[in-house]
Structure to design on (716 residues):
């Protein structure tokens, strides 16, 4: 693909590299996004034929062509030097594989430089001189850096200020990001990184590595580096308790990180390549593969995994440029990654969310902001939305995992949430009309604020049925489940009687927008509720987790939802995806993905829409723009955002996969023919073994089916 700004980042450890293509710099930071420094990356080849450096510095560039590619764990920049007769690939890897915590949090990157002799003639450019040997040059240059050669590498030091930083994105704004050490705000933090040559090269008088190479009999040469960091400060405050980055559990200093990375390089690369192969060896289109790689790295950029002095850990995810911690509605979408790859991150997330309830019946929107998690920072509650999100996520998790442990831990909380949702209907029609402000904050009031919304009505209907099912598991009184099911039926009856408009579901029952305000301008609104009967993409939002875990909700009219989702998609479609509704001017990529996956389960194939979503990411990360994954098209701007990881749901949607590990049943109904899709939920990561579903001419087979032992598999 063409070069675009992109990133690699470590899982939970904040270390990141952001490749700013147009400004020809690499932003790197041991404390993560918005706390990086921008440096020139000196990387190239010196030879008797001449010097060539990749275009992330002001050094001479003699490359004839340049482009890039990506895998889940790597970004690869590719360069062709016709004048000197060689090609060069520079690969930056943040190795990751599930179920290996030490590797996941280890704060380092591999930089692998692969050279290949190329003597083939070219009709435009003649090779002036073919080189057979040379020197790879690698290092950093920047006014903000203090570079100190050591016998075994190069130490990189710099200061970052943390009180207030102006960040330029699609929408520029000042971000209030603060760091504390034992409750004392730090105006600046000293950061330390280290670069080492795997082959043992030393930095020269200019603080650059010079590693000689010769092409072997196959015309190839390889040079590699480790780029690492370490921070042992108590950088995070969680309810006034102090936490360090989790990697301190495994590494005392940056030298130990480098030693681990170099000593175990072969084994680590094998694990990393296996994780890459999950997507690379699938039949997904190249756009899907590129999009998944891009969104995964933007997600990792936002993760924070920390530990306190007692050994208690916390895993949270920042909300991009908003910086809220573990926002429930964002993680509701990111959950498609956890339920596919990494369910180990869900247990601490449910626990941390549950702590915010505090006998109110409300799961709070977020845990805090940035490195300080002392309670919700968002200015408004989203009671019905976040309560139903918690219920549906936990229910699906237990059924898919085949383990009710999390239910037993949180059942008391779930009952309080169900009561709040139940009591939120004060009109008697079943639909909640209290606490209905939701996360779709850049839309019209009918979508964002209305008191009787189809979106939250269907979601509440699904949540009540999930709680009713869980109450049976917990041995609760049968009358409790009956009460919830009666309410679910009442909601459904009202929705289908009053909100079904012949070929689609309307947005809400509210007729007036008096007292509401316009997004951004805060202009007061009045009169008839604008857009209340429009086509919109949210009616099915609460269905996906139930379908994924093989639970068929009662009362929900799936035939109508199938018709609704098709018609709404046609009516709301734009160049880069669907608006929230017909008269709403904002597109949210993540919500389009969620809609596409719901549509797949209902029988529509919208998965080629990824071409639109990926095109938008390219537009917003070239020609001077640097947003990484940006979720919004229109008035709003959510950049450096983690929610692109909703994309992982394509692995479920392509198979219309349903996993019920309580009853040991798997349902597979491939959406397309001639596909090969991994059943990642059943992967054996330790032994690097994966089951694959292969559809070939109407026949479905499963490779490595022994990993599904004990399950009944139903093909539809």
């Amino acid at each position: 693909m063409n070069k675009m700004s992109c990133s690699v980042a470590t899982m939970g450890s904040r270390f990141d590299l952001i490749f700013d293509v147009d400004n020809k710099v690499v932003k790197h930071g041991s404390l993560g996004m918005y706390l990086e420094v921008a440096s020139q990356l000196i990387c190239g080849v010196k030879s008797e034929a001449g010097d060539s450096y990749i275009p992330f510095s002001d050094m001479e560039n003699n490359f004839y062509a340049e482009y890039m590619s990506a895998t889940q764990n790597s970004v690869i920049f590719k360069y062709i030097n016709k004048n000197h007769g060689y090609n060069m690939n520079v690969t930056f890897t943040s190795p990751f594989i599930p179920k290996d915590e030490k590797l996941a949090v280890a704060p380092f990157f591999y930089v692998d430089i692969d050279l290949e002799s190329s003597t083939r003639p070219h009709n435009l450019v003649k090779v002036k001189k073919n080189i057979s040997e040379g020197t790879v040059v690698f290092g950093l240059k920047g006014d903000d850096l203090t570079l100190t050669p050591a016998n075994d590498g190069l130490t990189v030091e710099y200061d970052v200020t943390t009180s207030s930083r102006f960040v330029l994105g699609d929408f520029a704004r000042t971000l209030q990001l603060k760091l504390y050490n034992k409750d004392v705000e730090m105006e600046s933090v000293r950061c330390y990184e280290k670069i080492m040559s795997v082959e043992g090269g030393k930095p020269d008088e200019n603080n650059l590595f010079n590693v000689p190479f010769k092409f072997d009999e196959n015309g190839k040469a390889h040079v590699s580096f480790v780029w690492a960091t370490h921070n042992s400060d108590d950088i995070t405050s969680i309810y006034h308790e102090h936490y360090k980055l989790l990697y301190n559990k495994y590494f005392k200093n940056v030298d130990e990180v480098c030693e681990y990375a170099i000593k175990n390089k072969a084994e680590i690369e094998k694990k990393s390549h296996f994780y890459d192969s999950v997507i690379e060896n699938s039949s997904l289109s190249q756009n899907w593969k590129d999009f998944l790689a891009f969104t995964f790295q933007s997600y990792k950029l936002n993760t924070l995994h920390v530990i306190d002095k007692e050994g208690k850990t916390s895993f949270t995810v920042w909300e991009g440029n908003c910086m809220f911690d573990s926002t429930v509605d964002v993680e509701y979408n990111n959950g498609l990654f956890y339920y596919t790859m990494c369910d180990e991150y869900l247990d601490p997330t449910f626990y941390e969310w549950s702590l915010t309830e505090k006998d109110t019946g409300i799961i709070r929107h977020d845990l805090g902001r940035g490195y300080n998690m002392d309670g919700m920072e968002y200015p408004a509650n989203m009671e019905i939305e976040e309560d139903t999100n918690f219920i549906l996520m936990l229910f699906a998790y237990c059924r898919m995992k085949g383990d009710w442990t999390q239910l037993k831990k949180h059942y008391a909380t779930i009952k309080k949430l169900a009561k709040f949702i139940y009591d939120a209907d004060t009109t008697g029609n079943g639909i909640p009309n209290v606490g209905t402000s939701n996360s779709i904050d850049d839309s019209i009031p009918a979508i964002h604020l209305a008191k009787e919304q189809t979106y939250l009505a269907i979601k509440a209907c699904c949540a009540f049925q999930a709680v009713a099912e869980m109450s049976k598991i917990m041995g609760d009184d049968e009358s409790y489940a009956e009460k919830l099911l009666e309410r679910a039926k009442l909601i459904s009856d009202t929705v289908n009687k009053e909100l079904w408009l012949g070929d689609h579901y309307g947005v809400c029952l509210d007729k007036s927008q008096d007292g509401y305000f316009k997004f951004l301008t805060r202009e007061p609104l009045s009169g008839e509720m604008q857009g209340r009967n429009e086509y919109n993409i949210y009616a099915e939002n609460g269905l996906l987790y139930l379908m994924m875990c093989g639970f068929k909700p009662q009362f929900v009219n799936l035939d109508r939802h199938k018709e609704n989702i098709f018609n709404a998609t046609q009516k709301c479609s734009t160049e880069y995806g669907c608006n929230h509704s017909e008269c709403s001017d904002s597109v949210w990529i993540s919500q389009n993905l969620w809609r596409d996956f719901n549509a797949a389960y209902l029988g529509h194939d919208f998965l080629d829409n990824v071409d639109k979503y990926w095109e938008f990411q390219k537009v917003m990360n070239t020609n001077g723009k640097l947003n990484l994954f940006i979720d919004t098209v229109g008035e709003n701007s959510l950049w450096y955002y983690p929610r692109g990881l909703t994309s992982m749901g394509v692995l479920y949607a392509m198979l219309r996969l349903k996993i019920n590990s309580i009853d040991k049943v798997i349902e597979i109904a491939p959406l397309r023919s001639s596909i090969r899709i991994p059943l990642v939920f059943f992967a054996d990561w330790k032994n690097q073994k994966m089951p694959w579903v292969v559809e070939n001419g109407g026949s479905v087979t499963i490779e490595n089916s022994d990993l599904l032992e004990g399950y009944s598999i139903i093909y539809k």
Q: What stands out?
A: DSSP finds 16 helices and 34 strands in the chain. The longest helix spans residues 478-499. Residues 168-172 have pLDDT under 50 and may be disordered. The longest strand covers residues 37-47.
